[in-house]
Amino acid sequence: MTTALLRRLLPLPFVVLAAALLVFLLPRLAGIDTVRAVLRSRVAEAEPDPAVAARLTAELGLDRSWIEQFLRWLGRALTGDLGLSFATRTAVAPQLGAALEVSAVLAVLALLIAAVVGIPSGVWAARRPRGALDRVVTGLSVLGVAVPEFILAPVLVLVLAIAVPLLPATGWGTLPQAVLPVLTLAAFPTALAAQLTRAETLDALGLPHIPVARAKGLTERRVLWKHAARLALTGVTALSGLFFAGLIGGAVVVEVVFGIPGVGRLLYDAVLGQDLPMIQAGLLAIVVIAVLASAAAELAQLTMDPVALSRALR
Amino acid sequence: MPPARRRSRTTLTGTCLAAVLALATACGGATGAATGPVRPDGELRVALQFSPRSGYAMDTDDAFVLHQFGATETLVNSGSDGRPQPGLATSWAQVDPTTWRFDLRPGVTFQDGTALDPAAVVNALTWVSGVAAPPRAVKGIGLRAVADGPAAVRVTTTRPDPILPLRLSSVNTAILAPSAYRADAPPTVLGTGTGPMRLTAADGMQQAVLERNDAYWGTKGSLKTVTATFVPDPAARALALRAGDVDIAQGLPESSLLEFTEGGGYTNSAVAAPRTVTLMMNQAAEPFADVRVRQAVEKALDRTALAEQALAGAALPAAELFGPAVGWGSQDPPPAPDVEGAKALLAQAGHGPDDPVTVRLQTYPNRPELPTLATAVQGMLRDVGIDAQIQIGEYATQEPDLLDGRYDLFLLSRNYLTDVPDAGSTLVSDYSCAGSYNINRYCSPAFDALLAPLGTTADPATRQEVFRRASAMLTADVVGVPLVHSQENGVARNVSGYTVDPLAKDLVTPGLAVLGE
């Protein structure tokens, strides 16, 4: 197990380093004039002024070579100092930390719904393929996968905040305010979890140990949940890491529509304001989260699935 | 005035939201006419279009947000006629060509309890004129302030500045308490202004909370608290208003405005903004060095169709650079397009099937109307035989080429008041021979001579006459083609006293009140 662990973890720092370099070079690769971008983010129609540009270039340390800038940026990032926002001229780290916290709450709640609703639905649907329940689950999951967030969000607002005014349409900080965004965000992973669990459970029900379990006299429920669903869960578990990272960084639509101060909204505003330190720090944080979550999910899968573990050790 | 980033962003999300919002009418929603008495100690909730991006730094566009909230005040206010009005200064006088004296209003205290005195004013003005990138209103004028007795300040400039009082109406020159100013950071704005509302909580891009300043020197309003939520998506703001989450929503999609009717208890306001989208033409190079080609472009464009069809009525067709937002602006409709006339002019200039005009039409995407207009303009130019290839990229990346004259056509959205209700700065920077932002590469000694009195004339009527004549001259010389003037809108429910300020400086005023028991 330790060997498998090391094999999984050792490449991670290099992946993060490569991502950090790419993130740092992004504005250069995109041809963005940082100083002009900063000036226009502070005062939108600021006319060009070479003296002001020179002062700002020195103030931001942009007159150094890019390698020096990268090493300084990376060195500070390793100590948790992500620099100052070009826009607010305050530290990036606390703003990013607060936003990540909000997004993590959203992502965890969405994944919780996906686990509690999606996985059992998939297992139940697999119990009687093409039965009524299977058709309902399959139909709803296709809908959940197909309907994008920018459609689902306003539809939920329309139904649950306007037509039947049960919940607020915008804001963050109270439980009612969390309901619509979490439901919107949970739709896709829930649907996908249901589809994946159904498919994996059906596969597992076809394996040779299932008739043996039935021959031993186990109830159908026990066969389904203990011997088939457990195997099916390994695939879903492996995907959960990717889901988590995707939900953290990919909730832009939900956070913008519902006015939630998460990392998606933070990056959305940073991109509009061309706040490069914030964009770079946000992207790097998402990459790190994605790498860690993916590794954690993979390790969880190894502990649950002996076959996968032995394959990893080979 | 609303700067470039103060804009509506019609995203894919927004479009879809708007479409779904249209269904909301059929599904009902909160209704009820805006009736009832003014609610004492009312609590107002507002959905704002633009979040503070620079931590409420006074030297940035965030100063507009603070002034809209009623948290900050300036020495001078500007009236709708473009004339300076008393603010924290009750009167002013020009002592000599480069010096003005401002008498401070007695009895004013900052929200932190300290008194407004000359030292505080000097401190604030010195800070804002000394930042690395000074705001447009005070940039490059060498502003210095010193105390002049116990209740006045003297403000000097390097050169004579006839509009200094107007410059001090810029929201960036608001006066904060001395305690606001820190060594290595922008001033703190929590409870340090003098306005009728006190900013008590500022949750970054999410929300701001204000409470009534009961020690305010002027008329106190009925609102006890104001909660401003920053909702960047226009259709999401409309949904929040419909759901009753907010009482006022600013900058709604044109498609949703018709649904907020008076019958539903909504007050719908729209005003022309001092912002013009102009098709810039590079006069320093062929083909637009030839006035006949520029005239052909002008005749090819149907500006009414651009405003009413391409932008679905979200803007007004422009006849000249200055529009109905200002007293000296043109109220006339633009000339009708003349396709045959355009073709004839191109033929006179030597262009035809054998030598077609092929140009690049550049613009930028962060004002969503620009790519839409570019596509429509491309079609209209094609009809007269001009092949325009559209190129869309970040503005900051394109600016060096624009300023160096390495472009053909450029669609630019430009606020012509640059923070103060006076167009002198824009005319000089954008159209004079030595202008720092002369994208058209226009240079006319006659035009420069026309602008010359602006350096010495303080009288608003005289200045505005210069603006009128300058605008007419730019039209005659076909210095770019002004296409449309932007509009600002907002919708309120169960609120009285709500108006949309075309300069984007005022929102929470003492007259604003929540209605109902």
Protein architecture, described:
The complex is a heterodimer of chains A (314) and B (517). Chain A has 2 domains: 77 residues, no CATH class; 222 residues, Orthogonal Bundle (MetI-like fold). Chain A is flat. Chain A has 15 helices and no strands. In chain A, helix 6 packs antiparallel against helix 7 and helix 11 runs antiparallel to helix 14. Chain A is mainly α. In chain B, the strands form 4 sheets. In chain B, strands 1, 8, 9, 10, 11, 12, 13, 14, 15, 16 and 17 form an 11-stranded mixed beta sheet that branches. Helix content of chain B is 26%, strand content 23%. In chain B, helix 1 packs parallel to helix 5 and helix 7 runs antiparallel to helix 9. By secondary structure, chain B is of the alpha+beta class. Chain B is built from 14 helices and 19 strands. Chain B starts with 11 loop residues before the first helix and ends with a strand.
Key attributes of the depicted protein:
heterodimer; A: 314 residues; MetI-like fold; 2 domains; 15 helices; B: 517 residues; alpha+beta; 11-stranded mixed β-sheet; 4-stranded antiparallel β-sheet; 14 helices; disordered N terminus
Which regions of chain B contain 5 or more consecutive residues with pLDDT less than 50?
1-33
Helical run tally of chain B: 14
pLDDT averaged over residues of chain A: 82
| Shape, principal axes of CA atoms of chain B | globular
Distance between the termini of chain A: 11 Å
Number of strands of chain B: 19
Overall geometry of chain A: flat
Largest Cβ-defined interface: A-B, 58 and 68 residues
Percentage of residues assigned to helices of chain B: 25-40%
Structural class of chain A: mainly alpha
Biggest pleated-sheet summary of chain B: 11 strands, mixed
Return Rg of chain A in Å.
24 Å
Q: What number of domains of chain A?
A: 2
Q: Can you tell me the CATH superfamily of the largest domain in chain A?
A: MetI-like
Determine the oligomeric state from the structure. Answer: heterodimer
Number of strands of chain A: 0
Strand content of chain B: 15-25%
Radius of gyration of chain B, in Å, reads 24 Å
Strand content of chain A: under 5%
CATH secondary-structure class of the largest domain in chain A: Mainly Alpha
